[in-house]
């Protein structure tokens, strides 16, 4: 198999596992808010997730030193406060499925930022995939019928913008320091970003945490799978795929989130949302086919 095709196949497999984890987690997070405040839960997820990653660094004897501190700090703030903290806030008032979908406007912000910042242009059949995905998001969002949860929806979009900026910065850092260890690149931003998240959780008033079995399980699910493993899978894929394509492929997660919320939380999607999910699935299939094609060989003269 062509090495490039093998790399892209591995990256797409990582994205599939990632989207299954992140997709179902919208139901987990929404349900956990019965037992803890949004910032309390976000702080536990990010801080303990960072500790798990540093344990992995120690056990596997990988480099633990902090590199590029300003960039790592900004990445941590974007990923932990801007992404995780804001999306948890959005879940307080909004449904799990709707919040998932709006957070995943991230791919479009990534495409927008990747053009001037990374020089990654959308071309050829990718435009059809992008168009289908944009239409799918519009059908699900249904901007002509915005409901009372407008503030929650705005927070969800801001969470997606923060995630997109962190994706661009990660790609830039990898270009500048290609030898930087992947787990190190995940652990330090998570730890640095968890510190302001802990301060916010302490500062914002919230009812006492109820340490029910579900909350403990939700924290473990987020720390081990979503907070550690999923970010590793995301960075692994991001290093092997263009930032815009990786972000577009990960859009399967909100579809899973909507379906899981439908089954478990009885958030029934309407016809517009179902049409949007179909368009997004078409977009994902097309992107996967395009990425599995071998790169065209240069013609010698």
Automatic annotation (TrEMBL):
Pfam families: EamA
Transmembrane helix recorded as keyword: yes
Keywords carried by this UniProt record: Cell membrane, Membrane, Transmembrane, Transmembrane helix
Alphabetized InterPro entries for the sequence: AA-Vitamin_Transporters (IPR050638), EamA_dom (IPR000620), EmrE-like (IPR037185)
Membrane topology category: Multi-pass membrane protein
Subcellular location, record wording: Cell membrane
Ranges annotated as spanning the membrane: 12-29, 41-60, 72-92, 98-118, 125-144, 150-170, 182-205, 211-236, 243-263, 275-292
EamA domain ranges (all copies): 13-141, 152-288
Listed GO CC annotations: plasma membrane
Protein name in UniProt: EamA family transporter
